[in-house]
Amino acid sequence: MSPKNTTTTTKTPAELDFAMPAEWEKHEATWLGWPHNRKDWHGKIVPVQWAFGEMVRKISPGEIVRILVQGHAHEAQARRMLENAHVDMKQVEFYRRPTDRGWTRDFGPICVRRSGRKPEVAIVKFKFNAWGGRYPNWECDNRVPLKVAKTLGLRVFPAIVEGQEFALEGGGIDVNGRGTILTTRQCYLHPTVQVRNPGATRSDYEAVFRDYLGATNVLWLGNGIAGDDTHGHVDDLCRFVNPTTVVMARESDPKDVNYRPLKENRERLEGMRLEDGSRIQVVELPCPAPLHYGEWRLPASYANFYISNAAVIVPTFNDTADRRALGVLRDLFPGRAVVGIHAVDLVVGFGTLHCLTQQQPVVK
């Protein structure tokens, strides 16, 4: 696909009737970054690449899978893996755009959409600074949305607050596509740890959610789960599955480090309301047993599933709770196949399926 002109505007997306659609709404494509940073995967990059192959095999029957690669050799390697996994390669597109690592949910193109007489999909360009400086190398990742916009000819809305580019990651938010957004205080409002936007207040974040994502109702949960090096991303604990229902991770062992924060978040949800004032329906999702790699507690969570057109892919961990988690989600997504993807190797990188994917909605 040849590059096209990319336009920008001084008006916010909300002023032009754009909003971020829910993940279950129809996609044109899913974006992935083929793994290459060996430091992220601690000697497991080959099984991780096989897991990527399985992800693409499950997603591609329903939409295009667009894969970011470092260059010709990296693309050839990815092609071999996917062909060996029996992926329909007509459903795969490669884009040679250098990245620092593969967590496309957080640095990839966050899309908004408007319907009506002038339907359009656009990209909101947030700053990506490696989760508030968690890693020193992030500049290549930060450039990806603009490169994608130029390639696809999409309009760009730079998220600017008081003259500064505003930092935000896709894994730190979840929307119901009707005006409500989920996030956590630990991720975006902690005053000293992994601060994305120094000096930014709750009101600043809520204004950004409203102006750039079309979300007028913000649900602030508390802390995330143990082992999450993003410091509290919501996609490891609570997710919308339809406009009125969320799944919420629940730890049943009172001695586990996740028990108290998840219980407190469940209690917070009971007092919250949706954009129309109605109560939120909460469905509990089990937690797997604690998973460790050396001294690290890993952020293993079934809430890190990804909703594609053809299937809901769910991380599994060789755990007795795998079957229960899949059963809960199958009941909630009757129109889609709900399938497990082995994620014990993936989570060594401190994330799994949702962290690695980013949806691009269709023009409606």
Description:
This protein has helices at 38-41, 45-59, 72-84, 104-107, 130-133, 139-152, 185-188, 202-213, 259-270, 322-332, 353-356; strands at residues 27-33, 64-69, 92-96, 110-114, 120-125, 155-158, 160-161, 164-165, 174-175, 180-184, 217-221, 238-242, 245-250, 281-286, 292-293, 296-297, 306-307, 311-316, 337-342, 357-361. The model is unreliable at 1-8 (pLDDT under 50). It is built from 11 helices and 20 strands. The chain has a single domain (14-361), classed as L-arginine/glycine Amidinotransferase, Chain A (5-stranded Propeller), CATH 3.75.10.10. The relative contact order is 0.17. The protein is of the alpha/beta class. The chain has a 4-stranded mixed sheet. A 3-stranded mixed sheet has the order 4-5-6, with helices on one face. Strands 9-10-11 form a 3-stranded mixed sheet, with helices on both faces. Strand 7 (160-161) and strand 8 (164-165) form a beta hairpin.
Short description, anyone?
The chain is built from 11 helices and 20 strands. It is of the alpha/beta class and 364 residues long.
